[in-house]
Every structure is written in structure tokens, then in C-alpha cells.
Amino acid sequence: MEEENKEAVISEIHRRIAEAFNVFDNESSKSVDVREVGTIIRSLGCFPSEAELHEMIAEVEEEEPTGYIRFEKFLPAMTKVLMERKFRPIPKDVLIQAFEVLDQEKKGYLEAEELKKYMTQEGEPFSQDEVEEMLSAALDNKENVIFYKDLVSKMTFEDL
Amino acid sequence: MGCGATKSNELQLKKYQRGSIGVPAMRAALLIQRWYRQYVARLEMRRRCTWHIFQSIEYAGEQDQIKLYNFFGYLMDHFTPANSERNLISHIFRENEICRDIEWERYFCYKNIEVPELYSGPHLSFPLTVSNVADLVEAFKNKQQLHTRYVLQLLLESWKLLRMLPNINQVSTCQTKEITICGDLHGHLEDLLLVFYKNGMPSVEKSYVFNGDFVDRGKDSIEILLILFAFMLLYPNNVHLNRGNHEDYIVNLRYGFTKEVLGKYRLHGKKILKLLQKIFSWLPLATVIDQKVLILHGGISDTTDLNIIAQADRHKYVSTLRPPKRRWVASGGNSTAGRHKVNGRMDNSLQRHCSLAYNSPLRSRYNFQSRSMQNFSSKVNLAVEEELKEQRRMAGLSQSYHDLRSSLSSDSDSDNYETYEDDSNEWKQIVDMLWSDPMPQDGCIPNEVRGGGCYWGPDVTEKVLRRHNLQLLIRSHECKQEGYEFCHNRKVLTIFSASNYYEVGSNRGAYIRLGPDLVPHFIQYQANRSTRELTLRQSVGETERSALRALREQLFAHKSDLLYAFQDYDTDNTGWISLKHWATAVEAVLRLGLPWRVLRSQLVTTTQDGMLDYQGWLRELPITEPKTELVQQSLLETMYKQRSNLETIFRIIDSDHSGLISFEEFRQTWKLLSSHLKMEISDEAILDMAVSIDFNKDGSIDINEFMEAFRLVDRTMNLPSEPNHTKTDE
């Protein structure tokens, strides 16, 4: 019974992975552009860092990188990630704490410039585009600041 | 010391300004970045899914239409004229009775039509002047309508010009320097105006090629057509039009152009449509630039031969859905009665059933598996292959597509046959040009998704380009998110000019500029100003809501079948099934090839421990407005599912375009539809339906009213949803 259940769970995981993969496999070629792999992995509910992502890509790439990742290689690696529950989501309160660390004055908000500086200069820096997109979604227009508690609520997908 | 301490605190507080901060802050930044990137990825996934939803529903609809049309062909071929069903539709197969040019000019005489003093729209004089055309564009920008008299005049002049053009326009950059190429416009006037605004209007200095599909779907198809024709008349050497698969009166019946014209021109709409029928058939089929770049609407196939195309009588193909009329020499009375299939002998029905006759392999095409929107049998798992076999058997066909093609090229022993063979090869070439799509794999297979034309691979591109010494193929026909897309090693370029095609924010439009170096340059745009100002999140949200609404309507249309499928999994009759089974069942019924597990969270909002109360969920799906509650539930579902087909049939039956059909005609429609769908429906049920739909109780049914009755109310949105068709401004 245990075995059957495990098999059923794995086959369902396989189907989820295949679905997500196929969304980006426009040509039915059973491979996707390597630049989309991050999106696929994240859409399956994982929260890897950029470094972790690159590690994973290196694992599933061809011997001689072609710029494409094949489903054949992706499936087992991704299955392992999901079974082992790697790259778990960040709980809301932990996220808010992170913002609070940056909000040294404990104002309850961050200035646009503050956040921009942090995001583009620390950790795994954002590109200009990334930070601008974040700001445009996050900024409270009237006061030109980011109320991060609200932001976290807005940008959390409850579903998975 | 106080000062100093404060100062150093200050310094500490503002440390971020110097860009070096402590470890906790760095870790915090990492966390936030990780989280945000995940969020963006989820959004991107949803955006892609939305795209797939729209596209799969669109293509399924097209396939649906072709199936219906094939069914009509089947009726024509297998029933005698005495058969009443056949009679209802036979007139659309009849050749345009008025063939000779002189008769045409007389028939469409505009001279008797007076332009009243009150008319505030533009006045045209012929030959057209630059200011005439500028006025025209300006008027349409201001939502004015061109008077019928001028419309007819303009169309007549256009026809006279088009008749003189070759099948393949030859254009050279040395005369015109740069050429601008636009793809599908589909009645989106804002996009055409945007292109003119960004790129300048056509002139002797500015050449344009418009690559088909000017009409249908959007609400300003006639305006676009009139503008394009006006510019073509003004600058015949600089404005080139290619025919698209929507420049076809049969396709127009379903996709909105017919409806638009009849709505805008109540008195003379029918005349205008009849004139356009002919004009469409006179549109050139392709344009070649500097003998190196081939531009056509759909694509190619492995048999594409521009020399054959150049020789064809293109105006014979009034509708490309319909094969050429058989030319029987002095063999009386063979036309309809008792046609039998004899091996090797060609027959209209074989032609029309080309797509149905193909025994498709079990691979999946792109992301889509075999699509069927019509799954009326309670055996939910009836595969498309089986359905095809069934149809083939019904049609008396036993040949596969390959047999068909080989018999096409086999020797014949009669003149008739020979003539016919040339015709059908020509016909196939033209259909391929207007309907085909590229595919990544090598080879050439029938396009079973659309039901016409084929899928062609990079090897075919190579072959055909080399055959004619060309270097690039530019085509349209498929909507692309960025407005354009390369494939086949950049030898094939798709250009699509209708932005926001599926929904506001769904895609950009684009056009190409080509200079003497023949290197394409792209300019993209999006018609709705506000979409550009939306954040990624907001624009994804809007489009996504619309796609999900459309998807929920599809689910509603298959309610009964879904219930059966769910019950199959609920062996203990608990009323609950697992989400896993939900996904499998939904795909088996809808067959849209969509990622249901990815979409699940947005379609199924209440679950318990991974289980779903499926009956409750089905009840939550959109419902129709109260008016139609009188109609039996299962019939209602069928009507909703079939509303596009119904509308098409109505418009065909309503041969005088009055917009009204009698109860008897309504009954005949249902008989027709139910034999197409292999459904049982009693006369009584039909009568009940007719009575309940005759809202003003005058004994006849208004087509538009009927379609309005199928507005769905999406409960989750608390907003009524639009019927799939565009609505005309009346």
C-alpha cells in the first residue's frame, strides 16, 4: 500500500512538472530555453536563490551547454527537489522581519531610494529593470514610500 | 561629546548610503530578493498560461468551423436536391450567379443612391485624391461612417484595379527604397491608425504590404478595408494587398464581418457583402520583394510551386474552404445524385474531407493534443481518431491522406479527370498558402488543428526557398506575444499587427521595415495607452481574468460531460474527488491541452484536504441569464456550446439577410445541427425552445436576440461576460 501511494504521489509530481515545463516548451521539442528554467522551478512553488538556481542548472545542462535544457534531464532533478522539499517558501513573518532589518529606523516603511540601494547593491543584486518593476508595483504613490507589510500581503500567492 | 555621539549614530544609520552594510542586512536583502524573484516567476507563468488558454480556445473554434463546413460538404455530396436539409445550405455553394463584368457593374450601380444633405461624413470623388483619402482616415478616426454610395463606388473601383493585378505582386526596393510590411489587422482600426502615426501613411515615398486578415473579430473591419482599398487606388504601385484566410465570405459568417456590415449598413449591407465576395477572390495571393523575399498570409507546403500559383485563375476560389467546381464535360445529370466512391476517382468530398481523412499519429503537436470541442457522446473517452474513422466510414472513404495524395498524382484516363486534377492541385496550393502554420519538426503534415492547410517544417522551408531562389519567407496568420517571431533558422518570420488581440494587454502588434539590404527591422506597439502604463502585475491580472472567464465558459459548456467524468472517479459515490482526478477528468473532456494543475488554484477555490466537492463546483460555474431558464438544461448546454455553429447556420439559412428566421427555419437548423453532432432531438423540444426564445412573441426569431440570450453570468466575477463575438456599434 505504501509503495502504491508513493508511486501515485511521484506520478502526480511528474505530471505537475511536465505541465509547467510544457508551458515554456513552445515547439514541443521537449526542451526549454535555459533562461526559462528559473521561472519553471519557481512556478512549482520553490524559492531558490540565484546561486542555488545556477547550481541546479549546471546539474541539468548538457555536457556541452546548448542553451537548452532537456526535459529528460530536468524531470528527475526537479522531482528530487519537490520530494525533498528543497527551496522552501519564506514564511510571511520572516519576510517582514527582513524588511524590518532594513528599516533601521523602524518607520514601518522604506523610502524608494533606500530599497533601491539595498536591492541593487546587496545580496544577489537586482538589475535596473527588476528594481524598477518592483518599485512601480510597491510604491505608495501619494507618499513615495513602500509600506512593506502591505507589499508582502499583496505579493504572496496563497495557493500552493 | 553629545554632538559627536549623535553624529556617529547618524553615520551609522545612514550606512546604507555608503553601500557597505552588516551581515544581517545582507541576509535580509537576499531573502527579499529571493522572495520577489519567485513572485515575478509566478506572474510570468500565469501570463504564459493565459496565452495558452486564449490560443487553444481560438484554434479549437476554427477547427469547429471547418468541421461544420465539411459536414455541409458531406450533405451536398451525399444527398439529393430533394433533401430539405441540403436545400437549406445549398445556396452558399452555388456559384455567384452574376459572372460577367458588365452585369456586375450594372448590378452594383451606386448611381441611384443619393447622398442626403444631412450626411456629415466624408465625400469621395473618383479618381481619388490625397485629400479624399486623408478625409476618409480622419472621418473613421472620429467614428464616422462612409455613405453606402461611396462605399459601393470605392469597392467597384477597387475591383477594377484588383482584376488587373497578377497573382503574385513583384516589388522592388530600388524604386521604393523602404517597404513596410503589416500582418493581421482583424478589424483593429486603432492599430492601423497607430501604424500610420508611427510610420507615416502610404505614399509614393512609403510603400506598404498588408499581409491579409484585414477583417473579422475586431469591430472596424469595413473601415480598415475601405482605408486599404483607398490607399491602393491612390498609390497602386506602392500599396500591395495579400489575401488572408479571413478574406472569405464563409469564414466571415462566423467571425463577425458579415454581422458588422449588416449592422452598419442596414439597407445595402447585403449588396456590399456580395460585392466583397467577389473582390476577396481577386486579391493577390502573395508579394515578392526583389525576387528574394516572399510574403504571403499563411505559409507553404512541400508542394508549393510559385509557378503554378502564378498561372492560376485565382478568382475561381471565392472561398478557399471550397474546392473548385468539377468540370464535367457533357455528362448530364451527374452533379449530385448517386455519387459513388470509386477507387482512384476523385470526388469533391474527398477534397473537403482531406483534413478528416488523415489518420493522425498519436504525438502531441506543440502543447496541444488532439482537440475536440464536441464530445457529446457519454463515452467521454471517444478519441478523435475514432471520430475521424467514423466520419470517414460515413463518407465512404477508405483512403488515408497519403493514399489520397498519391492518387492525386496518379495517371488518369479521362479529360475530365485531368482537368480536375490540375484544379485540385491548384486549390491545394492556394489553401496551403492561406492556412498553413510552421512547425519545428521536419516534414509536412495536414494542419488538423485549423482543419485546412498544413504544418510545414524547416526542411520544407529550405526546399521551397531554394526552389525559387529566395532568402526569406514573411507570413502572418498566428498571433505572437511580441508581434513578431522568427523560426526555421530565421528563414521564416511571422508578423502580426493586431495588438491586444485576445484581450487588452495580451500581446503587442508589430510591423516590419525592409530596405534594399532586405534585413527586417521591427517596430512594436500596443494600441491601448493605459496598458503601457500598467505594471506587469496589473496587466497580467486583467488579461488573466478574461482568459479564466473564457475558460470557465468552456467548462460550463461541458458540464454534463464533466459530471460523468467526475462520477467515474467517484466510485463510492461520496460526491468528492481528488484534485489529481479533477485535472485528469477536465483534460479528458475539454481536450484543450492546457496545464490544468498549474491553473487549478484559480479555477478551484474551495477544497478540503486535497479533495473537491465536484457537484458544488459545477454549480458555481457561470450560468445563463434568467430568460433562458425555460429551456431544458441539457439543451441549454448544447446551445451554448454550439452557439458559434448555430449562428453560422442561422446566417446561412437567413439567405436574405433579414436577421430573422421563422420557427420552421429554426426547426430545420436544429435538425441540421443535430445530424452534424449525431444527437437526438425531438421536434417537441425544438418547438418549446423556439417559443421560449421568441421574446417578442411575433412568430419569428431574431438572430441577434438569440445570441444575446447566451450571455453568461460569471458568478465569481459578478459581471456579465461578453459573448465571444464582437459587437457592432449600432
Automatic annotation (TrEMBL), chain A:
EF-hand domain location: 90-125
Keywords: Repeat
Domain of life assignment: Eukaryota
Database matches in Pfam families: EF-hand_7 (PF13499)
Protein name in UniProt: EF-hand calcium binding domain 2
Molecular-function annotations in GO: calcium ion binding
Gene: efcab2
Keyword Cell division included in the entry's annotation: no
InterPro entries noted in UniProt: EF-hand-dom_pair, EF_hand_dom
Entry GO CC: organelle
Organism: Scleropages formosus
